[in-house]
Amino acid sequence: MSFRLFAVTAPGLEKYTSTELNSLGFKSHRPVSSEVYGDTKEEAGGVEFEANLSDMYRVNLRLRTANRIIVRLGEFSAVSFPELRKKAARFAWETFLKPGQPVALRVTCHKSKLYHSGGVAERIAGAIGDHLGKSCAMEKFDESARFPPQLIMVRFVHDQCTISVDTSGELLHRRGYRLETAKAPLRATLAAGMLMASNWDLHSPVVDPFCGSGTIPIEAAMMTRRIAPGRNRRFAFMNWPDFNQELWEDVLSRTISEETPIAAVIQASDRDAGAIQIARNNAERASVLSDIKFNCQAVSNLQPAGSTGWIVTNPPYGVRISQQKDLRDLYARFGTVLHDRFSGWKFAILCSSDILIGQMHLEIIEKIHLVNGGIPVSLYCGNI
Ligand SMILES: C[S@@+](CC[C@H](N)C(=O)[O-])C[C@H]1O[C@@H](n2cnc3c(N)ncnc32)[C@H](O)[C@@H]1O
Question: What architecture is domain 188-228+238-383?
Fold first, then answer.
């Protein structure tokens, strides 16, 4: 069985998901910069690719930067509700749903005769019921639920209807290790994307002096040890009627057999003792506690872990933690520490403000636009 899959990413991360897919052996794919999913109007780009069943399991298990993987079920034109219901009933819904199983529908309509998303959702649920011979209830999709209902995505553009089925369930940034968080935690998918965007070589030391709940160092340890980010969680495809448990176990055990010992020095610190304790607990759940050197210290006490390496970090910035003016002093202090002790190192710093970064007097070689918790931010990269 072959699937047309789409890896949905946060804006700015498409390129890194595409690189990940290349390294997993997928050649023919196309980064897409902007699509609209769901009535939450979540803007998301992503990458389209073809895969068989075991690859579909594998990408869910291994992609570090994608939010979710969806199957493109098909496209057709429809200008009336009866036509929509009839055409939608032709898909092989039995692949994804048991008769009577409730579904969650996310519908967007643009420039189409069928513009009422609630009406479209009702007809799609009706079509699924028609196909499976038992009516299908609609449930709300709770993004933060541990076991959300099967999600179906419907997109109308110029009377053309595209239907997709989610394969992931809970968003893929939920690796299962981060049960506790400190202030303003990053999504694990963004932390992995920052490490990839920094061009970290997976071997040199990597330092996060504002580690909070430890997302960046934990993702770094998982990357260098080739630990699959999804190995401790469930996916929506596991509830499909023909879920192939044997094939999944094979994919999982092959992936686990590729894990390697730690290949880099990973250093994480924060001035908040509570945050360090949380980061340690998260690292333990991710099985990388012994791979990371944690320290409770202010950034002014930071010392390099070698003669060269990468600083990859997300210091506090105004919008999320506070608007205090002493943030400028913090960035200036951080800049002085880097200039005095980290000459020859590379940096990738996530921040929402050119003014704050300006306090560090660093030469910025690349500025990558990303989004963190709905806020436009940039990853400022360069050499010290
Ligand atoms: C935006 S949060 C980092 C979030 C982290 N990336 C995560 O995923 O949880 C910034 C962190 O910087 C820490 N911090 C603030 N001022 C500091 C300082 N002067 N030295 C070290 N850490 C500091 C805060 O305690 C907070 O945990």
Answer: 3-Layer(aba) Sandwich (3.40)
Give CA separation, 300 vs 143, 294, 359, 383, in Å.
39, 16, 15, 20
Q: What lines the ligand 1 site, CB under 6 Å? A: 182-186, 209-210, 212-213, 215-216, 270-272, 275, 298-299, 314-316, 330
Distance CA(237)–CA(243), nearest Å, equals 7
Ligand 1: which of 178, 208, 219, 270 to mutate, most ligand atoms within 8 Å of CB? 270
Q: pLDDT by residue (tens digit) across 255-299? A: 999 999 998 999 999 999 999 999 999 999 999 999 999 999 999
Residue 56: name the closest of 196, 240, 223 by CA: 240
Nearest to 208 by CA among 288, 335, 295: 295
What is the whole-number distance in angstroms between the Cα of residue 217 and the centre of ligand 1? 13
Are the C-beta atoms of 304 and 293 separated by less than 8 Å?
Answer: no
Query: What distances in angstroms separate CA 253 from CA 209, 243, 261, 285, one per listed residue?
Result: 35, 17, 17, 19
pTM flag (> 0.70): yes
For the stretch 133-154, pLDDT in tens is: 999 999 988 877 778 899 999 9
- Atom 13, ligand 1: which residue's CA is nearest? 210
Q: Are 147 and 169 in contact (CB under 8 A)?
A: yes
Domain spans in the chain, listed from the N-terminal domain onward: 2-166, 188-228+238-383
Which residue, judged by its Cα, is nearest atom 18 of ligand 1? Answer: 298
How far apart are the C-alpha atoms of 235 and 216, rounded to whole Å? Answer: 23
How far is Cα 245 from Cα 59, in angstroms, rounded to an integer?
Answer: 16
Query: Is the domain 2-166 a CATH 3.30.559.70 member?
Result: no
For ligand 1, mutation pick of 210, 280, 311 (most atoms within 8 Å of CB): 210
Give the span between the Cα atoms of 151 and 157, in whole angstroms.
20
Q: Which two tokens stand for residue 5?
A: 């899959």
